[in-house]
Amino acid sequence: MDRSQKEATIAALNLELQSAALVVVTKQSGMTVAEVTDLRRKMRAAGASYKVTKNRLAVIALKGTQFEKTETLFKGPTALAWSKDPVAAAKVAVDYAKTNDKFKIVGGSIGNVTLDAAGVDALSKLPSLDQLRASLLGMIQTPATRIAGVLQAPGGQVARVLAAYAKKDEAA
CA of 119: how far to CAs of 25, 46, 91, 106, in Å? Predict the structure, then answer.
């Protein structure tokens, strides 16, 4: 990789990290290409990204972002996972680490807060942004459904009473 390619890689990574809410630093030594491809596929499905890059380039790309404090985590063969959702990358990384011994979580950062591996694990147990939105929408819709049911009930009762009187009159 020549200097211009390195600069392009750093600029592209920096641009993506500017809009991220979470960064997870991982160790992935000994993983096969198929395993890394599987991990990338899972990350993409969750709305996250995963990139193996040289530590020096990653540290330079982190400059000027809210994740600058994570530069101490880059020792040995590492990779970055990031997402705009504050939980998505952590969920996928923790789930994948449970099934693959070659993949380990070093730490991460959410905003200006640096996390260790246990912090990333705790973060992965939180509901995702989409799950929170769905539950909030459910809470908002439930009272509206109940109100509609209560408002329709008197009309239904009146209709049943009138129908009963009509049947009574027909029988007579």
Answer: 12, 20, 12, 10
Q: Which distant-in-sequence residues (6+ apart) come within 8 Å of 97 by Cβ?
A: 26, 103, 104, 105
pLDDT tens per residue, range 144-159: 666 666 566 666 666 6
**pTM of the full structure:** 0.71
Signed CA dihedral, 7, 13, 17, 19: sign only: positive
Distance CA 151, CA 113 (A): 49
Which parts of the chain fold into alpha helices (H)? 3-18, 33-45, 55-62, 88-99, 117-124, 129-171
CA 37 vs CA 33, 34, 43, 57, 87: distances in Å = 6, 5, 10, 21, 21
* Enclosing H/E stretch for 51: strand 48-52
